[in-house]
């Protein structure tokens, strides 16, 4: 065993070690530097220790400590993530499978919609000049020469003084330029009395009125919902190019974790994060895969990470990482650069991001505490997923609300508190924090979080919001 000095340093003579440790108090990577060698001349302008030569057997002076990196703002960390996440290439899906995704092609119709002149409602097809000026006192009387219903039919036509009974969607007979609603008539079978005369073209759908051949039916970037699926089917498209759902693998790190089917023992906790974050990713629109608890055996751990990087567009890891000797950090470091940072936010200030593996897959590490993990997801991961989906609106809409209670927040940190927002009887919104308003016990309260419908945001330069003051609120709408 290597001896330790009283100040906690290794008792051996320091040499070159190409390792990176993490000071979790600061979130600062600290790299050991090589001890100075007398055989190497210092570079011009380099700082030189003013010391005499080291006597044989004496311990060289320790290397100068690296300056701690300043905490990063929420915006800096978010910008780094959003600038690095890719947009997956478009794929072709069946129209029903494309629901909820963005159209990735300009769908040009080869058909006219409607394909023929048709009645817009049940009534009588007639000539506008024959019913002009009709009224209940002086109705226009027309001979009914037939009836047409929706469906295949042969050609039909009407002349002066004639009408044809038609159903909604039925082909309009030649010569007709108006449909008189049935409620404006006496409903006659051989002869019909018309009590009001609509203008030319009333209650008639002309061929191509909706979509003409060669025009765009669905544009690039249009969200595909029931109405778009209806239109795609009408123009004859059963498949369409879309922005696919990003594949997100969700993993949990920590030797203290057990699965939900296991009764936790002393010091153990149930793996909540892989379930909660997978559900959050699906709600954001991703195709989420829940791996679960990462193994602690180094070789198996590396295999799992590499396999998930191959199958995913984004890797999401929740865990509490040790400052030194953490097997997950070491395994991740072998796959590429991953930077842990101290962020000016609470809860969960220590987080990480990098692009790892052969395909430089984005990897986001969020805190292991479940409430902090879901807050970090809302702030960083959800916008990344929406960007990968091609959404224009990356962030949830915010509202200004009146604080029902006094709120406290640490200076220099952006505080995210769970709360319940509701409409104020006099207009606007009022928000009630779920807790004491200080966030001190916020991190551990899962039941409290489950009752919340919003996040209350207190900016970095605000330490107190009085009851009745205005705060920014992020409503947590499912699928929103």
From TrEMBL:
EC number assigned by the record: 2.10.1.1
Disordered: region residues: 1-75
Pfam families on file: MoCF_biosynth, MoeA_C, MoeA_N
Domain of life: Bacteria
UniProt keywords, alphabetically: Magnesium, Metal-binding, Molybdenum, Molybdenum cofactor biosynthesis, Transferase
Cofactor: Mg(2+)
Pathway in which the depicted protein is active: Cofactor biosynthesis; molybdopterin biosynthesis
Biased composition (Basic and acidic residues): 1-10
GO MF: metal ion binding; molybdopterin molybdotransferase activity
UniProt entry tagged with the keyword Metal-binding: yes
Gene Ontology biological process terms, A to Z: Mo-molybdopterin cofactor biosynthetic process
Xref: SUPFAM superfamilies: MoeA C-terminal domain-like, MoeA N-terminal region -like, Molybdenum cofactor biosynthesis proteins
Bias kind Pro residues: ranges: 58-71
Compositional bias per record (Low complexity), positions renumbered to this chain: 33-46
GO cellular component terms, A-Z: cytosol
Catalytic activity: adenylyl-molybdopterin + molybdate = Mo-molybdopterin + AMP + H(+)
Domain annotation MoaB/Mog: ranges: 249-387
Matching SMART domains: MoCF_biosynth
Similarity comment text for this entry: Belongs to the MoeA family.
Stated role: Catalyzes the insertion of molybdate into adenylated molybdopterin with the concomitant release of AMP.
Name the record gives this protein: Molybdopterin molybdenumtransferase
Source taxonomy: Bacteria, Bacillati, Actinomycetota, Actinomycetes, Geodermatophilales
């Amino acid at each position: 065993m290597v001896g330790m000095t009283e100040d906690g340093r290794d008792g051996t003579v320091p040499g070159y070690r190409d390792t990176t440790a993490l000071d979790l108090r600061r979130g600062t990577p600290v790299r050991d530097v090589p001890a100075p060698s007398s055989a190497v001349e210092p570079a011009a302008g380099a700082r030189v220790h003013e010391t005499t030569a080291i006597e044989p057997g004496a311990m060289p002076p320790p290397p100068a400590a690296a300056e701690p990196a300043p905490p990063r703002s929420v915006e800096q960390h978010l910008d780094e993530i959003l600038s690095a996440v890719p947009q997956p290439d478009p794929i072709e899906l069946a129209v029903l499978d494309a629901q909820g995704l963005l159209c990735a092609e300009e769908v040009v119709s080869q058909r006219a919609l409607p394909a023929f002149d048709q009645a817009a409602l049940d009534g009588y097809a007639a000539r506008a000049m024959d019913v002009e000026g009709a009224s209940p006192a002086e109705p226009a009387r027309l001979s009914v020469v037939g009836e047409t219903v929706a469906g295949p039919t042969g050609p039909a036509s009407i002349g002066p003084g004639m009408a044809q009974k038609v159903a909604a969607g039925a082909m309009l007979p030649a010569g007709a330029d108006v449909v008189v609603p049935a409620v404006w008539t006496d409903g006659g079978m051989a002869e019909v009395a018309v009590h009001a005369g609509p203008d030319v073209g009333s209650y008639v759908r002309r061929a191509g009125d909706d979509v003409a051949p060669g025009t765009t039916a669905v544009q690039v970037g249009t969200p595909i919902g029931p109405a778009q699926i209806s239109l795609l089917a009408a123009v004859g498209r059963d498949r369409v190019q879309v922005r696919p759902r990003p594949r997100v693998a969700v993993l949990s790190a920590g030797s203290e974790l057990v699965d939900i089917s296991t009764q936790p023992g002393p010091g153990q906790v149930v793996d909540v994060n892989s379930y909660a974050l997978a559900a959050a990713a699906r709600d954001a629109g991703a195709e989420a895969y829940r791996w679960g608890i990462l193994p602690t055996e180094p070789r198996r751990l590396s295999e799992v990470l590499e396999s998930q990087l191959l199958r995913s567009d984004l890797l999401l890891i929740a865990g509490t990482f040790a400052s030194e000797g953490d097997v997950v950090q070491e395994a991740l470091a072998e796959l590429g650069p991953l930077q842990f940072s101290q962020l000016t936010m609470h809860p969960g200030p220590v987080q990480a991001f990098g692009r790892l593996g052969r395909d430089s897959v984005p990897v986001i590490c969020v805190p292991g505490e479940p409430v902090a993990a879901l807050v970090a997801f809302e702030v960083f991961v959800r916008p990344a997923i929406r960007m990968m989906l091609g959404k224009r609106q990356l962030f949830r809409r915010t509202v200004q609300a009146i604080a029902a209670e006094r709120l406290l927040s640490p200076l220099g940190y952006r505080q995210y508190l769970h709360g319940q927002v509701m409409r104020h009887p006099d207009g606007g919104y009022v928000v009630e924090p779920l807790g004491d308003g200080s966030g001190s016990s916020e991190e551990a309260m899962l039941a409290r979080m489950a009752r919340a419908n919003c996040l209350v945001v207190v900016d970095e330069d605000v330490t107190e919001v009085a009851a009745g003051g205005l705060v920014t609120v992020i409503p947590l709408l499912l699928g929103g």
